[in-house]
Design a protein that fits this description.
Blueprint lengths: L1 E7 L7 H8 L7 E7 L5 E5 L2 E5 L12 E10 L1 H15 L7 E3 L4 E2 L2 H14 L11 H9 L13 H19 L5 H18 L7 H10 L3 E5 L23 H8 L8 E7 L1 E4 L11 H10 L12 E6 H10 L4 E5 L10 E7 L4 E6 L17 H14 L3 E5 L7 E3 L1
Parallel strand pairs: 1-8, 1-9, 2-5, 2-8, 5-6, 5-7, 9-12, 11-13, 12-15
Antiparallel strand pairs: 3-4, 10-11, 13-14, 15-16
Helix pairs in contact: 3-4, 5-6
The protein binds inosinic acid.
Inosinic acid binds next to helix 4.
């Protein structure tokens, strides 16, 4: 039995999709898990001419024989989930629906939550969080207020679900001042009933029994982390965070798995930092440098299409995150994007506003597609070794290009 978590150490978007794809391959994985968050996450999987954006399903959904768990810490939009299942079916010739294992406690996220998200952001004006507008905050607020709908309720009758939605509508009107139009209501109820029809059987009666069975079978379990450590609700970056706990502990809680069974935490980062949404980023580039790196690294949010802000890697903070998340291996991605950069800077000290940098000479050549650590230029190796030393964590993966084959594995 093994339990691996892929934990983003920054603000999401470090390329953990690629690592998840590798770790969730049936050669290494029997159960692929999403534990927290909802449609705010997103990564693109490219296989030859076939391409798909996944927002809710973890990467194991692409492979026959791999169970796909949607854990209790998630908030799930019915129409998005059904659409994603159908897209996987038509693009990758496999049926994830029959392999789904849905935690009964997983919450339902409605179109109405998206409208409430937008309304709250508008109300905050210049203090807006810059959310993905996926309804995440209001869905978790309903969960915390103990009025939200959970997947286990799909076992009710169609009439009881409609009735439940009517009660939620009253709650949204009172709590968020949301006056739902009949079109949104129709869309929500139709999607909810379609989800009942297709997925009711996939909702587990008891997740702990499922997990114990899997442990007994010696299963290899891979949790695909959502967002990143810095976006966790409890993080110091509050209020510019998401509404779930996107940390190692949060993911275990969201999956319903015990901490002492954790085998590996693979911490992901890029050789530079990016952030989408509002909130401070102390290593952020000036406008010109930002535009250049953003274009070079294709730093556009997969969920929102927004441009990500870019800056030098904050290694001082990354080392803190690696410690707190209990990281056992690192995956450092997208180094090839800095091929022409000289110097390459890493923030290694300083206070909240003013980072102090250590400069490394760039390699000024191409590392694109390399798969052997020994083939990296000395200058590149010096940087990776410094990162491993500062974080006290060995590097397992070094990304050298967007394709899953463009990777050094150590
Ligand atoms: P929310 O999760 O949509 O409420 O957004 C809260 C903050 O988290 C915003 O700054 C979003 O841009 C950011 N965020 C949420 N999900 C992701 C993600 O998957 N990648 C990067 N940023 C994200």
């Amino acid at each position: 039995m093994s339990l691996t978590l892929i934990q983003d150490l920054r603000w999401g978007d470090t390329g953990k999709g690629k690592i998840s794809e590798i770790e969730a391959h049936p050669d290494r994985c029997d159960v692929s898990v999403r534990a927290v968050g909802g449609g705010n996450a997103g990564h693109e999987i490219v296989k030859g001419t076939r391409k798909i954006s996944l927002h809710l399903l973890p990467a194991g959904c692409l492979h026959d024989g791999v169970d796909v768990v949607l854990g209790r810490g998630m908030v799930t939009n019915p129409s998005s989930l059904l659409k994603e299942i159908d897209e996987v079916r038509s693009t990758f010739d496999t049926d994830p629906q029959e392999r789904l294992v849905i935690a009964p406690e997983n919450h339902v996220l409605f179109e109405a939550h998206k409208q409430a998200d937008a309304a709250l952001e508008r109300r905050k004006g210049k203090d807006a969080v810059g959310t993905t507008m996926s309804g995440i905050g209001p869905a978790y607020a309903d969960k915390a207020l103990r009025v939200g709908m959970r997947m286990e309720e799909l076992r009710g009758t169609q009439a009881s679900l409609k009735d439940r939605y009517g009660k939620l509508k009253e709650h949204w009107a009172q709590t968020y001042g949301l006056q739902l139009d009949s079109e949104t209501e129709d869309r929500d109820v139709t999607a909810l009933l379609a989800m009942k029809d297709r997925l009711e059987r996939r909702v587990q009666p008891q997740m702990t029994d499922y997990w114990q069975r899997k442990f007994h079978e010696n299963a290899r379990i891979v949790i695909e982390g959502a967002q990143g450590s810095l976006l966790s609700l409890d993080n110091g970056g509050y209020p510019y965070v998401t509404s779930s706990f996107t940390t190692t502990n949060g993911h275990l809680q969201g999956a319903g798995l015990p901490y002492n069974q954790l085998t590996d935490v693979i911490g992901t980062l890029k050789l530079y930092d990016t952030r989408v949404g509002n909130g401070p980023m102390r290593t952020q580039f000036n406008a010109e440098e930002d535009a250049a790196l953003c274009n070079k690294g294709d730093e556009i949010g997969r969920t929102t299409g927004r441009r990500r802000r870019t800056g030098w890697l904050d290694l001082q903070d990354t080392a803190r995150r690696a410690w707190e998340e209990g990281v056992t291996k690192l995956a450092v991605l997208k180094g090839d994007i800095l091929d022409s950069y000289d110097p390459i800077r890493l923030a290694v000290a300083g206070d909240q506003e003013n980072p102090l940098y250590k400069d490394f000479p760039g390699w000024k050549g191409s590392i694109r597609g390399l798969t052997d650590y020994g083939d990296l230029p000395d200058e590149a190796r010096a940087i990776y070794e410094f990162i491993a030393m500062q974080t006290s964590v060995p590097i397992r993966y070094i990304g050298t290009g967007p394709d899953s084959s463009e990777l050094i594995t150590r």
